[in-house]
Amino acid sequence: MQALRSSQGSLLGRPRPCTSRLVSHQVARRSSIVCSAAAPMKKVEAEQDVPGMSKFLDTLKYDKNGLVAVIVQHIDTGEVMMQAYADRAAISETLQTGLATFYSRSRNGRWCKGETSGHFINVHRLFADCDRDSLIYLSDPIGPACHTGARTCWFSEASLDAGHHVHTEGEHTHSDHVPMTTLLALERTIQQRRDALAQPTEGKPSWTARLLSNPELLCKKVREEAGELCQTLEAGEGGERAASEMADLLYHSMVLLNLQGVKMEEVMRVLRKRFGTSGVEEKAARPPKQSS
Amino acid sequence: MQALRSSQGSLLGRPRPCTSRLVSHQVARRSSIVCSAAAPMKKVEAEQDVPGMSKFLDTLKYDKNGLVAVIVQHIDTGEVMMQAYADRAAISETLQTGLATFYSRSRNGRWCKGETSGHFINVHRLFADCDRDSLIYLSDPIGPACHTGARTCWFSEASLDAGHHVHTEGEHTHSDHVPMTTLLALERTIQQRRDALAQPTEGKPSWTARLLSNPELLCKKVREEAGELCQTLEAGEGGERAASEMADLLYHSMVLLNLQGVKMEEVMRVLRKRFGTSGVEEKAARPPKQSS
């Protein structure tokens, strides 16, 4: 059941000759080479040659063009990266190769994302919805998912202001108007405070700015907040208080990570690799280090 | 620009009579009442009566049935909750009411999610993709999003095993075969260890099981890991080490939260409410509490 979860995110294999029945597993970023001798390949079998494949594909409800909708979601950050359509053959190919493959309605043909840009999408898990007409490819993309070069395809936002007027913002690919979950939005807010440090400011600096400018204060706060989180358990202060203290600890820790140029995505990748191989437990069970 | 972000998640307003031009903002869970006197209402204007609305709706690329795809994503957890389609009127209604509204292809009509089940979806932000034919409603759903009663519509997984055989799993709505980001998957793993504590075990218990069984050890580890994270900054140990220590701190903290029955979703909600109103900074800037 683990086959779609490519080990440690790398898709290694023996190079094979390039034919239409083979798919290149290009792991290098920004390469436009699809079928180079250096690119490892995986053979794609016909649907009927893979036991269970037809049975699964038969359960899906294709539209009159033979397509289902596909959502590509980032396994670590939860970002929705792109949305496209797939036919039976594209789904079969995705399952076999672990590379996100679609049916292009504009080009009328099967399309392995990345085959021209090098920005392949490693699919770790594949899900079907209740109506069997929409799939999720839970993925670890190589480079930007959008053909414009943007990280995700959604970078334009519409909103209604207090004056009951609709605004559309973020027409550019490097827009901040992308769907961000709470964690990613907090990370961006911290980065905005960091960027603002370079600007002359008036009035009292924000708390985040103070933390960013004072590593000693920041470390003191991180240790304090960890203590307060522990105290919620030790003193039985209740779940609401625990959630609040965890929020404090997470926020202060993320300020500390920002100072070191580390993104939560990297932290999530570490966790995925650890607990994907029971590594969290392995690592955590090692004898304690000498700590202050 | 804040209008779509309903303040603190509540959709309060003055009750109005129930007509086809009004939408009920039902916030109570599991109620099937749509237009009760107690349910606050918001007026929905015609598209042309909302400045900027037609201009935005004109930028979208509708299919020959006049529809675009819509993905509903959970603002706190990043979960993809459901996927449906919307016409111009449904998008206009969503922008104005802040409630996820679609066009039902099976019923050939506009459909405000929750109008029969009570499981409305509060839409905080609305995004369009690069091709202008797919939207994301970044949302805070009330109750399950799926018509089956499942939390999300994706609860069935297809995977290829080492023997090159496709398996389909999770036919039931309470399946564990749902797309989970790394953070949610870790949370589930911890819960599985917790559940297993009630079972007789053979051999050495897992590290997570040991932590769950020994709050004193757990709190000691949380404090230690916070110290080690700080040390990466204090001693300039580098970003890779910082990511690794943050992973440790996050994992141990999540075990501590599990013991108190607290989910990361709740922590994210606290953070969203705080930093959505600059509350993170307000809270954090208060004079320090007496801590141990």
Keywords, separated by commas or semicolons:
19% strand; 292 residues; homodimer; Phosphoribosyl-AMP cyclohydrolase domain-containing protein (chains A, B); ATP binding (chains A, B); amino-acid biosynthesis (chains A, B); Ubiquitin-like (UB roll); PRib_AMP_CycHydrolase_dom (chains A, B); alpha+beta
Question: Which overall shape of chain A is indicated by the principal axes computed on the Cα atoms?
Answer: globular
Going by CATH, the architecture of the domain at 182-274 in chain A would be Orthogonal Bundle
Biggest protein-protein contact in the assembly: A-B, 128 and 128 residues
Radius of gyration of chain A, taken over Cα atoms and rounded to an integer in Å: 23 Å
N-to-C order of helices and strands of chain A: EEHEEHEEEEEEHHHHHH
What this model shows, in words?
The structure is a homodimer of 292-residue chains. Chain A is α+β, with helices and mostly antiparallel strands. Among the domains of chain A are: 89 residues, Phosphoribosyl-AMP cyclohydrolase (Ubiquitin-like (UB roll)), CATH 3.10.20; 93 residues, MazG-like (Helix Hairpins), CATH 1.10.287.1080. Chain A contains eight helices and ten strands. Chain A has a four-stranded mixed β-sheet with strand order 4-3-8-7, covered by helices on one side. In chain A, strand 5 and strand 6 form a beta hairpin. Chain A is globular. At the A-B interface, helix 1, strand 3, strand 4, strand 7 and strand 8 of A face helix 1, strand 3, strand 4, strand 7 and strand 8 of B.
